[in-house]
Amino acid sequence: MRQRIWEALVFLLLAMLLKPVSTRPHWRPSEAHDSAASYCLSWRLAVEANDIYAWRTVPTQCLKHVENYMTGGQYERDLNFIMEHIIDYIDTIEVSDDGLDAWILDVDDTCISNLIYYRRKRFGCDPYDPDGFKRWALRGGCPAIPAVLRLFNKLVGRGFKVFLVTGRDEATLGQATLDNLQNQGFIGYQSLILRSMAYKGQSAVKYKSEIRSQLEEGEGYRIWGNVGDQWSDLQGNCTGNRAFKLPNPMYFVP
Ligand SMILES: *[C@@H]1O[C@H](CO)[C@@H](O)[C@H](O)[C@H]1NC(C)=O
Ligand SMILES: [Mg+2]
Questions:
Q1: Which atom of ligand 1 is nearest to the CA of 210?
Q2: Which residue from 226, 114, 218 is spatially nearest to 173, judged by alpha carbons?
Q3: Which atom of ligand 1 is nearest to the CA of 203?
Q4: Which CDD domains match (predicted)?
Q5: Is 130 helix (H, G, I), strand (E, B) or coil?
Q6: For the chain, which end, N or C, has fewer CB atoms within 10 Å of the first or last residue's CB respectively?
């Protein structure tokens, strides 16, 4: 009897000692991976929510995370998901026949994608390279973002006046941008507005606000929606009835 009790006690003691060991996280070989993945999820959420301001590069430990997000299918799924909601909203709008129902779309990483370029920049882990980006943009080879092209065609079909507003420099990138949009099927918009000399050096918020204010207050357009991958596309004045932020964990434009 005493022997049995003794055995039971030893067994209990061993069970108590071993249980926490087997679940201690540092025994799991994937712990380092898990904590990086979870850090990068938090980082990306904070970036998308505009809780981290003026960040310059993607943290190096998040290179794989951002690469997987951008190229592994989730980015496209997020865009398609957002697009369904934008299209539900569009379907509630009664488009007037006065021709003043307007919609604003940003260009870079909204209508057309710079993912091919940013792949070479380690998905934003490398710092912004204005000359490199200019050379890339001059080639006019940015592919359309399919979900946004569908939205664009829907807007044009419904009779909205679509304005493409970009911070790209008009003098140097105007023609390449026009050609690029055309070769990717963005046909039927009202106008492409690029950054002219007058806005050189201004923040995107200020420049884009002034453009929208000219459209609304100067020309009488009603801005029903505004879509961009940067918060600076959507902030400021005359922001429109609804603003839609598209994902972009690769760079921040102030
Ligand atoms: C918004 O409008 C106000 C009043 O006109 C102006 O002072 C301010 O600079 C504008 N903000 C931006 C970001 O353009
Ligand atoms: Mg953009």
A1: 14
A2: 114
A3: 13
A4: HAD_VSP (cd07535)
A5: helix
A6: N
For ligand 1, atom 14, name the residue with the nearest CA: 206
The Cα 143–Cα 167 span in angstroms is: 18
State whether the beta carbon of 209 lies less than 6 angstroms from ligand 1: yes
Residue whose CA is at the smallest distance from ligand 1 atom 1: 237
How confident is the model over 202-251, as pLDDT tens digits? Answer: 999 999 999 999 999 999 999 999 999 999 999 999 999 999 999 999 99
- pLDDT digits 0-9 by tens, 147-162: 999 999 999 999 999 9
How many C-beta atoms lie closer than 10 Å to residue 10's C-beta?
A: 10
- C-alpha closest to that of 253 among 198, 207, 192: 207
Ligand 1 near 207 CB (within 6 A): no
Architecture of 41-245 per CATH?
3-Layer(aba) Sandwich (3.40)
Residues 6+ apart with CB under 8 A from 222: 100, 101, 102, 216, 241
Residue 228 CA to ligand 2 center (angstroms) comes to 6
Q: How far apart are CA 81 and CA 166, in angstroms?
A: 24
